[in-house]
């Protein structure tokens, strides 16, 4: 079982990032649940989704102990860092979260997602950049299946955007082999 | 089989279309608004009618009209909106009309809140409106069952000329899982010998009104109708009843946790079993006949504080076993707590 929370401001694509992970998971024959945060959210406030991936049937869709936290802004780090399992992974958008001290019993991957997305002229692609880092850091599925999953997800919505691939690759290449 | 990823609410809406449903009238309310949102464009594609009404009251009454004309119809609501449908449901029952009505349960009394809940069990299973009725209630526990049971609901509703309710909840409605969608079928609006079409001169007049007013054998008609539903439509899933010392009884989102709890408990050598009612009414009393002489007690696990399903379990086992409950309000029940309570039951400690 891999338990993931993807969190950030509304508009940063955190729910989409979770849905793409769900898509990649079922393409790989896994069971998956995805559920959005569902409180009295406000425009411009934080949004998040819980994703669980498993070979077994999944009981509750709600994540209690996080394996991987994708945090696109500072409030998301504050809200969820404590729920990460020891040795878990925090992927943080370092374009927006700066000068922070993190727990020392978890692995931190910093992705300057806004900067990279802007660099390749694809400002909405920051979530895809983070998925690149996610793919490399977790190794949960192979790189090609991430690429197919991302392209397939957007193709099903009638969107073809080659710059997403650039974002993904740059995120992926941030980490050493 | 081709899997697609879908939200529970959307899978439910698509299954309705595939069951031949071509009429929706209702009003939005969280956490079921995706059903309206989806049907608002999907009904157009299949040349059905989608009406966002001025209130739930208008919605349920338009539904009655479309059902009287022979269409397959659906409406959906939650919380206070679902309460507003009750008068109309009573009228649908009175007029012997099919309809599928969805309650995506949210928690609380009054306005309550928008999170998942199983607090409408009594309202759903006892006949939430005035009068003397009960309706078939189907309780999905996954996005797949949201599709499958909605599809089935139309057939059952037509078979008995009786409303069928879907007892979903905010978690099942909001979550995305993989789902295999059912086959597309067409419904012939003119196939019934009872529906009204507008009376041309010389044709036999049909009317849709309360059966009570013109049916001579109304008592025996009702007795037979309910007996037939109770006899034929009990549905459930059970695991490990053959040797279970404690049996959980749970449906919907809570039953998923119970299934996990049974697996974990069995690994620890605890003989735990589960009955998952799929029909909340008729309550699957047949399932309880499978309990073995090793059974010591039962425990319902449900998302309401009163333990609303306990009554039905007590009746089903005819006081042969003690019935405990583990109830939660805002959070989905937890596997570890289920197992803790089961251990206490086995040791005869206070639960």
TrEMBL record, chain A:
<keyword id="KW-0560">Oxidoreductase</keyword>
<dbReference type="InterPro" id="IPR052554">
    <property type="entry name" value="2-oxoglutarate_synth_KorC"/>
</dbReference>
<dbReference type="InterPro" id="IPR011894">
    <property type="entry name" value="PorC_KorC"/>
</dbReference>
<dbReference type="InterPro" id="IPR019752">
    <property type="entry name" value="Pyrv/ketoisovalerate_OxRed_cat"/>
</dbReference>
<dbReference type="GO" id="GO:0016625">
    <property type="term" value="F:oxidoreductase activity, acting on the aldehyde or oxo group of donors, iron-sulfur protein as acceptor"/>
</dbReference>
<feature type="domain" description="Pyruvate/ketoisovalerate oxidoreductase catalytic">
    <location>
        <begin position="10"/>
        <end position="173"/>
    </location>
</feature>
<keyword id="KW-0670">Pyruvate</keyword>
<dbReference type="Pfam" id="PF01558">
    <property type="entry name" value="POR"/>
</dbReference>
<dbReference type="InterPro" id="IPR002869">
    <property type="entry name" value="Pyrv_flavodox_OxRed_cen"/>
</dbReference>
<protein>
    <submittedName>
        <fullName>2-oxoacid:acceptor oxidoreductase, gamma subunit, pyruvate/2-ketoisovalerate family</fullName>
    </submittedName>
</protein>
UniProtKB/TrEMBL annotation, chain B:
<dbReference type="InterPro" id="IPR029061">
    <property type="entry name" value="THDP-binding"/>
</dbReference>
<dbReference type="InterPro" id="IPR033412">
    <property type="entry name" value="PFOR_II"/>
</dbReference>
<dbReference type="InterPro" id="IPR052368">
    <property type="entry name" value="2-oxoacid_oxidoreductase"/>
</dbReference>
<feature type="domain" description="Pyruvate:ferredoxin oxidoreductase core">
    <location>
        <begin position="244"/>
        <end position="326"/>
    </location>
</feature>
<dbReference type="Pfam" id="PF01855">
    <property type="entry name" value="POR_N"/>
</dbReference>
<dbReference type="InterPro" id="IPR009014">
    <property type="entry name" value="Transketo_C/PFOR_II"/>
</dbReference>
<dbReference type="GO" id="GO:0043807">
    <property type="term" value="F:3-methyl-2-oxobutanoate dehydrogenase (ferredoxin) activity"/>
</dbReference>
<keyword id="KW-0560">Oxidoreductase</keyword>
<protein>
    <submittedName>
        <fullName>Ketoisovalerate oxidoreductase subunit VorB</fullName>
        <ecNumber>1.2.7.7</ecNumber>
    </submittedName>
</protein>
<dbReference type="Pfam" id="PF17147">
    <property type="entry name" value="PFOR_II"/>
</dbReference>
<feature type="domain" description="Pyruvate flavodoxin/ferredoxin oxidoreductase pyrimidine binding">
    <location>
        <begin position="14"/>
        <end position="186"/>
    </location>
</feature>
<dbReference type="InterPro" id="IPR002880">
    <property type="entry name" value="Pyrv_Fd/Flavodoxin_OxRdtase_N"/>
</dbReference>
